[in-house]
Amino acid sequence: MRFSMLPSVFVQMFKKPWTNKFPAKYAPSNTTQFLKDVGEGKAEIIPPIPPEKGFRGKIKYDKEKCIGCQLCIKYCPCEAIEFKPKDKKIKIYLSRCCFCSQCNDVCPTNCLTMGEEFLLADADPYSKDLIVE
Amino acid sequence: MSEEAITKTSYHIPVGPIHPALKEPVYFEFELSGEKIIDVNVKLGHVHRGVEWASRKRNPIQVLYLAERICGICSYCHPAAFTLAVENACDIEVPERADYLRVVQAELERICSHILWAGVAAHEIGFDTVLYFTWQIREKALDLTEFLTGNRVTKGIMTIGGIRRDITPDMLPRIKRDMQFFKDNFEKLRHIFLDDKTVKMRSQNAGILTKDDAIKLCAVGPTTRASGVKKDVRTGESYFAYGDLDVKCITPKDLTGTVNGDVYDRIIQRLLEVKQSIELIEQCIDEMPAGDIVSEPKIPKLMNQIKKIEGEGVGRHEAPRGEVIHYVKFDGKSENPYTWKVRAPTYNNILPWIPMLKGEQIADIPIVAASTDPCMSCTNRVAIVKDSKRYELTKEQLHKLSVEKTRRLMK
């Protein structure tokens, strides 16, 4: 058969595209202005597709439960966790984190859990959003 | 008769050595007479990332994530082979349920990789509608991977002595639904690849690798099986749960009755393997025993056990591209590996390119080279030296040549 893909191509012409147009239908010419407009309620963000259950997003840290055993530091594959000797707590740099959730597995008190948040792009690797403590 | 003298002189095309997307950057030198390839020379060893050295400063749990980053598409195979090597060295028993879950992940990755390859191969011969069709199926496979492991590409599912995530009964309907989707679309894909004239005329009798050459050059995976050599780690060695499952070494002979060892056979081989993988996943889901998924859930305890080990281990796993081998040695002083050696399957499938490419045309380089499933952006750096004038042949131009040949044959 010569044109075996042709029927699929014609069907495709009448289908809606699969792409979710996040964050806006067309790329805004000025991103900061667009975000400002969103903040003021002038523009709207098309929401991203929600992640599956069990997705590994931004780490959540329960400071009260932490006993300062440093096991997470020993098993972190990318050295993203720092120990604060004064108050015996940890500090996680998400710009280095590879979101493997290995620290969650080794933690004896289960003070670390994976969240659902994944929009973590930032120009500054040491910004407040990218440090969990 | 000076003109005749020029046509008789062969000229050289160097390809390589730097190709960012190729796992092992290689350097090719093609000797050409007109359009025909007379000789190919391959030089290896242009990149050294120091991954193996980096492992000596990390404990085996950290090395798992380092191994995952050796390859993007085989991000399950490398940790799997590493885990097998460590388990071999330390005599760690793996629970039966974990073995079945490992097979599910391995076969899902094979489906992903082979379908991606089918799309790339179609793109190389200028059949782009198939590329979009295959990537539509692959998207579903990646969604299922995310559902099972929590991530699309770097899965982080493997751990020493078991697996990190279980398949619970509430996940089964979704897996069964997706498997049905793969089955339905697989029939469509098989029809396109095996019955379409465009694919047939470009792939039949192109890039032939004979059975003798395949054995002599130690080709692995679908490349060697398409030449009729029954070499498959899944049947040759009992690891994971493959010993309990109904897995047999398939060759194109099962479908067509003959083995030619050409590009068309390699297409058939990969499509048959996709079907086999779907069946294996279904079988695993049905026969999976209950029980633990990790032999030792406390990682510090496991590390203390590994720390005392003095010895070496080898892990072999059938990756989508062929056999991957990891070798690990522990010195008994620290839990970090003393040595770690990785042999990826593409390494073995480089040399078979020489007999495949000899006698072919320049326009056949993309499809023949892609048929062994390397990461193909290597054609990006082709420079033709003709009459001591040098000009570059970019990937786009080479692709255009390939598309033009398809059009020419259609007339």
Description:
Chain A folds into two domains: 8-49, no CATH class; 50-133, Alpha-Beta Plaits (2-Layer Sandwich), CATH 3.30.70.3270. Chain A has 133 residues and is an alpha+beta fold. Chain A has four helices and five strands; from the N terminus they run H-H-E-H-E-E-H-E-E. Chain A has a three-stranded antiparallel sheet, with no helix packed on it. The mean pLDDT of chain A is 87. By secondary structure, chain B is an alpha+beta fold. Chain B folds into two domains: 2-47 and 353-410, Enolase-like, domain 1; 56-206 and 276-347, Cytochrome-c3 Hydrogenase, chain B, CATH 1.10.645.10. Chain B is built from 18 helices and ten strands. The interface between A and B is medium-sized, with 27 and 31 residues.
Reconstruct the topology from this structure.
The complex is a heterodimer of chains A (133) and B (411).
Chain A: H1 6-13, H2 31-40, E1 59-61, H3 71-75, E2 81-84, E3 89-93, H4 102-106, E4 112-114, E5 131-132
Antiparallel strand pairs in A: 1-4, 2-3, 3-5
Chain B: H1 2-8, E1 11-15, E2 27-33, E3 36-43, H2 51-54, H3 60-68, H4 77-90, H5 96-124, H6 128-149, E4 158-159, E5 162-163, H7 172-195, H8 197-203, H9 211-216, H10 222-225, H11 233-236, H12 253-256, H13 263-287, H14 299-307, E6 310-319, E7 322-331, E8 339-343, H15 345-348, H16 353-357, H17 365-370, E9 382-386, E10 389-393, H18 395-410
Antiparallel strand pairs in B: 1-2, 1-9, 2-3, 4-5, 6-7, 7-8, 9-10
Helix pairs in contact in B: 3-4, 5-6, 5-13, 6-7, 7-13
Attribute tags:
heterodimer, A: 133 residues, alpha+beta, Alpha-Beta Plaits, two-stranded antiparallel ribbon, 5 strands, B: 411 residues, Cytochrome-c3 Hydrogenase, chain B, three-stranded antiparallel beta sheet, 18 helices
Strand arrangement, major sheet of chain A: 2-3-5
**Radius of gyration of chain A over alpha carbons?**
22 Å
Instruction: Show unreliable segments of chain A.
Output: none
Strand content of chain B: 5-15%
Distance between the termini of chain A: 63 Å
Q: Could you name the ranges of chain B where pLDDT drops below 50 across 5 or more consecutive residues? A: 19-23, 376-382
| CATH architect. name of the largest domain in chain A | 2-Layer Sandwich
CATH classification, class level of the largest domain in chain B: Mainly Alpha
Share of residues in strands of chain A: 5-15%
The CATH topology assignment of the largest domain in chain B is Cytochrome-c3 Hydrogenase, chain B
Order of SSEs of chain A, N→C? Answer: HHEHEEHEE
Q: What is the radius of gyration of chain B computed over CA atoms, rounded to a whole number of angstroms?
A: 22 Å
